[in-house]
Write a structure and sequence with these properties.
6-stranded mixed sheet; Serine Threonine Protein Phosphatase 5, Tetratricopeptide repeat; globular; about 600 residues; 21 strands; Nonspecific Lipid-transfer Protein, Chain A; alpha+beta; Metallo-beta-lactamase, Chain A
Length: about 600
């Protein structure tokens, strides 16, 4: 029997599933540093986070000619704008956060050139930095983008059931409601000002779109531009390769030693960022002859070897996280165990977790492949959160005892004690007993962790919560006591939003208005012919859902305009006004 075990162990070592030595080397919590520094705006943080603006080369506003006729416009935020001069005008890649920013950028470029420019084309790498376009529009300017850019943009901020949650969490992650000066200020441009949400937007929808997954060639401003599928943080992402200038303009392919690890999982939440699709994007880019790379994030890279090193660094770090997570799954580890165990060469990881953190990335890969279940049978049917927390607190001596323990831990001020204080106050929070001294202990613990992390994502959430528990958060005139209050602000369905949103999105929004408790046992069916759009939908209330298809039913057909439908969604009209039989649908909607 013992010989069999030894043989199995030898086989596992040979397969690489168990290391013969130093298997327990841990990097867990590597993004949490003991040493702190203070930035020019008074923020208390780690040295890596304090150095982000310098390492990304965005500390100062600048217009830099990185190659003949190629200008990097940087320093207004973390997103670069790239201006490329062609024989027939200018190509502008991405347009930043808002109109005011773009106005400054265009003026700065024209001042550097000593002349006005004529923009022949605007090309979006993806949907995140496309809000200053109106400033760059001239007579005849075409706008280029992936065919899914507009739908993805609307899903984030238009008529979408997710837009409120998405933007509320964005506010937390990017510290949008943090003070601009002092210990709680954001120490780098990885934090956003309120203008990110409230600044005047100048988005212009694309006039020319690229097919998903296809390499296309376009003539823009007299330049031959190759469009490379490059799905990185979003699925509408592309990279632009200009052969005549041996220039690559991608989204998020910057990598390598002494740079920020790509944010494979963002704490605010997003669609799954599959590391292997990022590897594919990098490999496609590496197949081109590139001497200049200006990513829309980070510094420019000049020279073939520098470009290759950057892209390979990005590529290999993504494959590394993927491969090692799968290796951990093969060893029988769950998501948390993999987060504690995963190892990256130090030159790749140390001080480079300035956006996200590796533990989060590994958990995302695990959950995408395996799902939420690990090995603990308790997780199958756990107690409700409030009851579990109440029992834990009772077992520890009650609310006063737990509060005292949390205070004592938070007062120690070290990383581990702050983590423990946060756990303890989470129990009080889950049972609805987070008050007074316990609330302040939680604020102290989250502030300590926010100051000690290199990760901008983590700092955003930690400091946001500290400010919340101290009653220091407001949005306009509204005091915020729970960030979920912002869901109603950002997710509100308004007449203006409905008017700007595509019909299909407005029709399908009805699905998410149904409360399955109110809809239980109710049925209705009808068809709608939209006379101004020339499309029809079959709509049926059944089994607690609203099913919407283009296969018309034998129910009544109503002819409506898009404005008529928008009024139904807004609630200024009810479905019973179409026919009394549809009143049942009104009663199934939870507004």
């Amino acid at each position: 029997m013992f010989r069999t075990i030894n043989v199995i162990s030898t086989v596992l070592v040979c397969l690489g599933l168990v290391s013969a030595a130093f298997a327990d080397t841990s990097q867990y919590g590597m993004s949490l540093h003991s040493e702190l520094t203070t930035t020019a705006n008074g923020a208390i943080t780690t040295v890596p986070q304090a150095n982000v603006d310098r390492s990304w080369d965005v500390a100062e506003k600048q217009i830099t000619e990185v190659a003949e006729g190629v200008y990097r416009i940087a320093g207004w935020g973390i997103g670069n704008v790239i201006a490329i001069e062609g024989p027939e005008g200018w190509l502008i890649v991405d347009t930043g956060d808002d109109v005011a920013q773009a106005t400054e950028q265009r003026a700065a470029l024209e001042k550097k050139l000593g002349r006005q420019i004529k923009v022949a084309g605007v090309a979006y790498t993806h949907s995140h930095y496309a809000m200053g376009t109106t400033v760059w529009m001239d007579e005849g300017t075409e706008v280029y983008a992936h065919e899914d850019l507009l739908p993805n943009l609307m899903a984030d901020s238009g008529i979408s059931v997710l837009s409120g949650n998405f933007n509320s969490r964005l506010v937390m992650q990017f510290g949008i409601l943090h003070p601009t000066k002092g210990p709680d200020a954001f120490p780098s441009k990885l934090g956003f000002s309120a203008d990110k949400l409230t600044g005047e937007k100048g988005f212009v929808p694309p006039t020319i779109t690229f097919k998903d997954g296809e390499i296309e060639t376009h003539q823009i401003a007299g330049l031959t531009v190759e469009v490379l599928p490059s799905k990185t943080d979003v699925l509408d992402s592309v990279a632009y390769y200009v052969p005549a200038k041996k220039l690559l303009v991608p989204n998020a392919l910057n990598g390598g030693k002494d740079t920020t690890l790509f944010n494979l999982y963002t704490l605010r939440g997003d669609i799954y960022r599959d590391p292997m699709r990022l590897v594919a994007a990098a490999d496609l880019a590496l197949s081109r002859d590139i001497e200049v790379m200006v990513d829309i994030h980070g510094p420019a890279h000049i020279g073939k070897e520098n470009v290759r090193a950057s892209i390979e660094g990005f590529r290999d770090s993504m494959q590394l996280i993927y491969d090692q997570t799968y290796r951990g799954i093969g060893m029988g580890k769950d998501a948390q165990e993999i987060a504690e165990w995963i190892y990256l060469p130090e030159e790749i990881r140390a001080n480079n977790e300035t956006y996200g953190q590796v533990e989060s990335h590994a958990k995302q890969v695990y959950n995408a492949r395996i799902g939420w279940m690990g090995w603990d049978a308790y997780d199958i049917n756990p107690l409700p959160k409030a009851e579990q927390a109440a029992r834990v607190v009772e077992a520890m001596g009650g609310v006063e005892a737990v509060t005292a323990k949390a205070q004592a831990a938070a007062d120690k001020g070290d990383i581990a004690s702050s983590q423990w204080a946060l756990f303890l106050t989470s129990q009080l929070q889950d049972m609805g007993a987070l008050e007074g001294e316990a609330r302040q202990a939680r604020a102290n613990a989250t502030r300590t962790l926010g100051q000690h992390t290199t990760s901008a994502n983590a700092r955003g959430f930690y400091i946001s919560e500290a400010l919340l528990h101290e009653g220091k958060v407001a949005f306009g005139d509204q005091a915020i006591t729970d960030y979920r209050q912002l869901n109603e602000v950002f997710g509100a369905v308004t007449a203006d939003k409905l008017a700007a949103s595509p019909l299909q999105a407005n029709v399908h929004y009805l699905r998410f208005m149904v409360d399955s408790r109110l809809a239980e046992g109710k049925r209705a069916k009808f068809n709608v012919n939209f006379t101004d759009e020339g499309v029809s939908y079959a709509i049926a209330l059944r089994n607690g859902v609203v099913a919407i298809t283009d296969q018309l039913s034998d129910g009544k057909t109503f002819e409506l305009s898009k404005a008529d439908w928008d009024a139904l969604i807004l609630g200024s009209e009810n479905f019973a006004s179409l026919d009394s039989s549809l009143g049942v649908l009104d009663t199934a909607i939870g507004r």
